């Protein structure tokens, strides 16, 4: 199958916000220059808000042009902090994530991925991206925990479990990578998947992305 590139919608919106904030700053400057009698406090507040908008928009405009690359061999995530890579042959299942309670499942705007082998995936991740995954996806485990009538673990133990993880070839992972490996086990126990992709990173609804990814998975 041909290579597909998924572009995050936030990149385009960041450019628009950047342009709007620059125009706002220029208008405020001209207003003060042409009408020095205007309320200084109000102008100062508007200037601070416009400057904050400019800084946020500038940061968003620096996001990578791509969020995911899908090839016949793998799916790869891109971000300013690093990325990860998972071969299709190492993916057991990909689907729309859901929070289940008493037989009822509520879909959430995340795509779940269940792996066959953790070691290969962990080898593709740097500590910085592991930290990003741990922080951004912890809310999903918390939500699943709260809907469990008799959870087998305490939520604090799951969120901060840094027990050393030993790979199949005997390599000992510590710190953030060990926490990520342990978190993936808890995610699978409570949510059915090891880690997740937010719909905010996609250029299409999560259901459509799942359909696309499953075609690549089947073709591999």
List the helices and strands and how they pair.
Elements: E1 4-6, H1 9-34, H2 40-61, E2 68-70, E3 74-79, E4 82-87, E5 91-101, E6 104-115, H3 118-123, H4 127-146, H5 155-159, E7 165-166, E8 172-173, H6 175-191, E9 195-198, H7 206-219
Antiparallel strand pairs: 1-2, 2-3, 3-4, 5-6, 6-9, 7-8
Helix pairs in contact: 1-2, 4-6
In short:
This protein has 220 residues and is α+β, with helices and mostly antiparallel strands.
Give the tags:
3-stranded antiparallel β-sheet, elongated, 9 strands, 4-stranded antiparallel β-sheet, alpha+beta, 7 helices, 220 residues
Description of the structure:
The protein is α+β, with helices and mostly antiparallel strands and 220 residues long. Helices cover 50% and strands 22% of the residues. The chain contains seven helices and nine strands; from the N terminus they run βααβββββαααββαβα. It has helices at 9-34, 40-61, 118-123, 127-146, 155-159, 175-191, 206-219, and strands spanning 4-6, 68-70, 74-79, 82-87, 91-101, 104-115, 165-166, 172-173, 195-198. The strands form three sheets. Strands 1-2-3-4 form a four-stranded antiparallel beta sheet. The chain has a three-stranded antiparallel beta sheet with strand order 5-6-9. Strands 7-8 form a two-stranded antiparallel ribbon. Helix 1 packs antiparallel against helix 2 and helix 4 runs parallel beside helix 6. The chain is elongated and about 70 Å long. The mean pLDDT is 87.
């Amino acid at each position: 199958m041909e290579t597909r590139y998924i572009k995050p919608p936030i990149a385009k919106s960041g450019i628009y916000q950047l342009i709007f904030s620059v125009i706002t700053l220029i208008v405020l400057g001209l207003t003060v220059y042409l009408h020095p009698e205007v309320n200084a406090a109000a102008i100062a507040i508007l200037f601070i808000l416009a400057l904050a908008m400019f800084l946020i928009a500038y940061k968003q405009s620096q996001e990578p042009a791509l969020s995911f690359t899908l090839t016949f061999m793998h799916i790869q995530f891109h971000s300013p902090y690093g990325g990860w890579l998972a071969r299709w042959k190492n993916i057991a299942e990909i689907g729309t994530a859901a929070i289940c309670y008493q037989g009822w499942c509520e879909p959430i705007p995340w795509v779940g991925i269940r792996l066959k082998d953790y070691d290969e995936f962990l080898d593709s991740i740097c500590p910085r991206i592991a930290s990003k995954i741990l922080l951004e996806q912890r809310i999903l485990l918390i939500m699943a925990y709260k809907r469990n009538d008799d959870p087998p673990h305490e939520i604090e133990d799951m969120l901060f479990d840094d027990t050393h993880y030993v790979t199949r070839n005997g390599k000992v992972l510590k710190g953030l990578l060990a926490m990520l490996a342990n978190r993936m086990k808890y995610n699978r126990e409570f949510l059915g998947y090891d880690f997740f992709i937010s719909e905010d990173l996609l250029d299409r609804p999560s259901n459509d992305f799942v359909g696309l990814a499953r075609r690549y998975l089947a073709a591999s």
